[in-house]
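Appendix B, record 7
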Amino acid sequence: MHPNKDHIKIEFYRKFDIYFDKREETFFSISDYYDTQVVKKTYTAAKKAIDEYIKENNGFKPFFLIDCRGYGTKNEYNFPISHEIDKITVTGIRKDKRFVYNESEQIGTSQYDQDKLYILLPENEPVFEELKPLIEEREIYKRLERETLDRIIQVSKKLKLVNLAEYRKTIEL
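Structure tokens (predicted):
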């Protein structure tokens, strides 16, 4: 959620801008510094959520993850073979030990999530740069394959096909 004409800025509090949303009648707080936001029903609850967020994340250093959830095709290293790598910025941790990312969404502690999210290590950046053209090349081949299959389908529609049951009717008297 980003501020718009339906939002009234209330104050800047502990590196959070607090707004009132006239349409939803809620208070939301956005922090570029913490790269997160909080939405609450009351002004007091919004300030309290900000205080709790800062308290819980005091000393927390944001980190990046590679999101491999939802990919069907993986190579032997369980890495998504895709034209784009989904990066998640983890900005904090809640009391229930869930990580907070991308505007207050949460990553649970389930084994499924943990097995599909990988820490983005700086030493892997050169490898990602090496992978980019290869992944793009693969995407070109996939597109070419789809286009070729479409052309095959179009040409094959010109075939006059008679199945065996229909043919049998024509030769039996």
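Remarks on this record: The CA atoms of residues 165 and 171 lie 10 Å apart. Residues 125-171 form one domain.
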